[in-house]
Amino acid sequence: MIYPIYIYGSPVLRNECEEIGRDFPDLTKLVEDMFETMYASDGVGLAAPQIGKNLRLFVVDTEPFASQDPTAAGYKRAFINPEIVEESDVEVLMGEGCLSLPGLHEEVYRPEKIRIRYLDEHFVEHEDELEGWPARAVQHEYDHIEGIVFTDRLAPLRKTLIRNKLNAMAKGKYEASYRTKQTRK
Fold first, then answer.
1. pLDDT confidence of 91, banded at 50, 70, 90?
2. For binding Fe cation, which residues are annotated in this chain's numbering (predicted)?
3. Catalytic pick among 16, 141, 146, 175
4. Among residues 65, 8, 82, 78, which one has the least CA distance to residue 36?
């Protein structure tokens, strides 16, 4: 099932999400649906709040960046109840976009390397050390489950310069090539 993507301004994108228990119904199906929704929207990551669910869950598949970054090849994962346990002091500037902010792309500083602990869709625990595009995608999606969108990480001047675009988007003035949904407070 392909879900609509919730757009900037929807309150669900600002919630800190709740952990998922082992008894969560149809988790495997939800993970499959999230990958299907992400691919249908031409994304490389998707967090549960982006489909209206207040859950500590996201999926990534960085394969589209494999030609630029060998660490991106074959990196496809579901992250349940993740926790970033370590970040490098070195930060790198890279361009980012977001399915919940269609048409908006900005340069964002993030730690170059991270270590993340998480459960997969079978509740097997993993701990990955990531860099390159996998680290970038995971940090972006992790922010979503913490109620943060990538524009929150921009310099104050840059935020001021895009404020009108964000306000317009929150009022439903945007274009997307995939199904979207907007809710307001």
1. very high
2. 98, 140, 144
3. 141
4. 78
Tokens 């228990």 label which residue? 21
Active site residue 32: no
- The answer to whether the pTM exceeds 0.85 is yes
CA atoms within 13 A on the CB side of 84: 20
Segment 13-19 shows an average pLDDT of: 97
pLDDT at 173: 94
CA distance 185 to 181: 14
Torsion angles phi and psi, residue 153, rounded to 5: -90, 0
- Over residues 9-35, the mean pLDDT reads 96
- Residue 166's alpha-carbon distances to 112, 139, 170, in angstroms, are 27, 21, 6
pLDDT at 185: 64
Tell me the two tokens of residue 117.
């602990």
The whole-number pLDDT of residue 183 equals: 86
The total of other beta-carbon atoms located within 10 Å of residue 14's CB is 15
Q: State yes or no: pLDDT of 184 exceeds 90.
A: no
From start to end of the chain, where are the E strands? 5-6, 45-47, 57-61, 76-87, 91-97, 105-111, 113-119, 125-131, 180-181
Annotated binding residues for Fe cation, written as ranges, equal: 98, 140, 144
Spatial distance between the Cα atoms of 62 and 139, rounded to a whole number of angstroms = 13
